[in-house]
TrEMBL record:
Signal sequence coordinates: 1-26
Cell compartment(s), UniProt: Cell envelope
One BP annotation, GO: response to other organism
Domain (Leucine-rich repeat-containing N-terminal plant-type): residue spans on this chain: 30-71
Entry keyword annotation includes Cell cycle: no
Family: Belongs to the polygalacturonase-inhibiting protein family.
Organism: Deinandra increscens subsp. villosa
Protein name: Leucine-rich repeat-containing N-terminal plant-type domain-containing protein
Entry annotated with the keyword Transmembrane helix: yes
Chief location: other
Keywords: Leucine-rich repeat, Membrane, Repeat, Signal, Transmembrane, Transmembrane helix
Span of domain Disease resistance R13L4/SHOC-2-like LRR: 97-204
Length: 330
């Protein structure tokens, strides 16, 4: 019995030493330590006070830096998530972020970042979520963003991006959420976006986009998973093509405040789960087909500011659609 206890205790000590040995040798990759310290130097005091110690992943007595998530890969720890938002960061996009090659999530939203997104962003091959909305970022979106093949969520709304929407976004096969709302984009919406098989939410509202919806959906079988389409507050012209009814998963169609015209096609009322349809402040005419008023899911049909014939009535009480973060971030 004594021999058994000694043997068991010895084994436990050996196991403990092995665990401690792994912990000792499991250092944070020098590349990531250097990058985070460069970011720390560029972000200013609002972040620095919460980033204590030499190792961003923690070093024994000190925890990992706030907003930094690490994971173990082999003998090293690497930074996989960086979330520093709503702390009034001022200055250019920290280029050192693009040295964190194992990042899967980058969230710098609701700050005061300026300047362009650097083309080096294309180095983050494992990135799944990129959230830069509510900043003051400018210039064009670099085409290198199309190299982020694992990206599922891209939030660039409420900035000052300009130029055309890059066709390279169509190279992101896993993309589900694309938010480009309230920027300064011009030109036509690239029809190539329709090839994104997993895209569920496309928000291009409040820009300076031109062209027609027909151009957007010209690819056969386009947007097979799309649920929410926001094209409001642009300069779109032409009518609503009957082919739009082929987007059978559509739930929200927001076309308000454009220069569109023509009649509302009956086929639109046959989209099975269409719930919100916003046509207000365009140049639509004719009548609304009765099928819309019998639609089992349609809660709101807003038609003010058009040239519809007398007797055409809206459905529901119009309100600005306000989606919470939880509706589209997760």
């Amino acid at each position: 019995m004594l021999r058994y206890r000694v043997s068991t205790g010895f084994s436990f000590v050996i196991l403990l030493l092995c665990v401690l040995n792994v912990a000792v040798h499991c250092k944070t990759l020098k590349r990531d330590v250097k990058a985070l310290n460069e970011i720390k130097a560029s972000l200013g005091w609002r972040v620095v006070y919460a980033w204590v110690g030499d190792d961003p992943c923690g070093d024994g007595d000190l925890p990992a830096w706030s907003g930094v998530t690490c994971s173990t890969q082999g003998d090293y720890r690497v930074v996989t998530e960086l979330e520093v938002y709503a702390v009034s960061i001022v200055g250019p996009f920290p280029t050192a972020v693009t040295n964190l090659l194992d990042l899967t999530r980058l969230d710098l939203h609701n700050n005061k970042l300026t300047g362009p997104i650097p083309p080096q962003i294309g180095r983050l091959k494992r990135l799944k979520i990129l959230n830069l909305r509510w900043n003051k970022l400018q210039d064009v979106i670099p085409p290198e963003i199309g190299e982020l093949k694992k990206l599922t969520q891209l939030y660039l709304s409420f900035n000052s991006f300009k130029g055309e929407i890059p066709r390279e976004l169509a190279n992101l096969p896993e993309l589900q959420y694309l938010h480009l709302h309230q920027n300064r984009f011009i030109g036509r919406i690239p029809a190539e976006l329709g090839s994104l098989r997993n895209l569920r939410h496309l928000d291009l509202g409040d820009n300076h986009l031109v062209g027609t919806i027909r151009e957007l959906i010209r690819i056969e079988g386009c947007f097979p998973a799309l649920r929410n389409l926001y094209l409001n507050n642009n300069y779109l012209t032409g009518g609503i093509p009957a082919q739009l009814s082929n987007l059978t998963n559509l739930e929200i169609l927001h076309l308000s405040h454009n220069k569109m015209s023509g009649i509302v096609p009956l086929g639109l009322a046959h989209i099975p789960r269409l719930t919100y349809l916003y046509l207000d402040y365009n140049q639509f005419s004719g009548r609304i087909p009765d099928a819309f008023y019998k639609h089992p899911y349609l809660k709101e049909l807003y038609i003010e500011g058009n040239a519809f014939k007398p007797g055409v009535n809206p459905i529901g009480i119009h309100k600005v659609l306000e989606l919470t973060d939880s509706d589209f971030l997760f």
